[in-house]
Amino acid sequence: MSRHHDATPSRGRESSRNAYRTPAARTLRPVIAALGAAALMTACGSGETNRSSAPSPAAASSAASASASASEGTSDSWSGTPTDPKKIPLGDGKVEQTGAKKGYAWSCRAADGTIGGAQKEGPWIDTKAKTWDSTAKVSVQGKHTWPQADYSESVSGADRVIKSTGLPTHEVTGTFPIQPSDPAYQYDFNPNTIKQKAIGYTLPLHPTAAAHPSCLAGQVGILKNGVLLFAGFDGEDRDAVAHETQDACDGHPAPTEEYHYHDIPSCLLDATEGKRSTLVGYALDGYGIYVERDAKGNLPTNADLDECHGRTSTVEWNGKQTSIYHYVATTEFPYTAGCFHGTDKTPGPTGPPPARKAPAAAPTSR
Description:
By secondary structure, the chain is an alpha+beta fold. Helices cover 10% and strands 24% of the residues. Helix 2 packs across helix 3. Residues 1-35, 41-48, 55-72 and 347-366 have low confidence and may be disordered.
């Protein structure tokens, strides 16, 4: 079984999401993309122990000119129609409690309607059409670097040992708690702070498929820039990526102060431009999480993946070209994983994060 050693329990993008990017985030894109490439290259390096720490200017510069190597097994053309970034299907109503279903997320718990998340619906959400416009979504302001950010991988026997401080090694974060002067505050006043954590996982180096899929307890896995990956739904079983406000790299903190994503963030997607297949993280059952693109650079859709949001094809795994199951990022809900495919997994949080307490000046929830 995989073992989680977290000292404390534990979201824009034009080219990257067929894409999208808010005006505030657009100015950070060249720097973030270069730093994201550095994070993926460093973390994906060969050797017994791979470490990625906060970047130096030289690392960022070299990453900007790095070339990509494609992995075999990526489709030249996906079966689904590329997702329109202005009309992304809304994930509300697509959380199941009874079992795995393609295009849905299977949650281990039921929402009770009183748990956290954004307090007001943003104008980028079209509830009638059941879509949302990623190009119009507001981003949390601020630009903070984290010198103490650190991520490492090592192999011990049949295990992959991962350690992280829970902070992004090559990306900046927004300002949290969200300030009242920030336009994002009127929709989501997220009062949580970002704190360094002592995170550790021991995952199977050679994961195996379970007889039946299993549900998501909240956390999906960890990305190779050191940041935790949560499921695509919020505490009220809504589409977290659509409703909750995140920073320029699509992250924000939980009430327990872990900075995390609900999808593969734009900064990492931008860093995979021009690459057919890129390992960007690991799910808690040990399987890899990949960004895959067709010959035109498009991400797949739910139509191309199974009920757990994955597929089996040839990718680079443990330093070799291997035909293996893996989860694949999409622009639409559930974004990374709809359930767990493998046998070994850390359960993650046993329930949703605690409800957010509104500050006195917070806008009224509707």
